[in-house]
Amino acid sequence: MENGKEIYTDFCVTCHLPNGKGVEKAFPPLAGSDYLLNNREASIRAVKYGQNGEITVNGITYNNSMAPLGLTDEEVADVMNYILNSWGNTSEEMVTTEEVARVQK
């Protein structure tokens, strides 16, 4: 989890904030996010390739772009596991490098 936390701090904290709450109507929250829990593959895809277009998180629609971060599959797995197990989020199934590698654009 430490590597994931470091990646989050380096690449994600500016928009999603240290507490994972994001900025309402600008950058979606990761803390307590129904989107993360219900859209695992799409969430991995967003971290791996970036995100464009509307998504709805906890009933609020966001339509901002997230640039690709240039992370390796291992780094994507690490940061996803950190996010999925921080700020009250819990995931019984860890994201693996192999799972990330299978996610296509």
TrEMBL record:
SUPFAM superfamilies: Cytochrome c. Keywords: Heme, Iron, Metal-binding. One of its GO terms (molecular function) is heme binding. Residues 1-87 form the Cytochrome c domain. It comes from the Bacteria. Pfam families: Cytochrom_C. This is Cytochrome c. It comes from Sinomicrobium pectinilyticum.
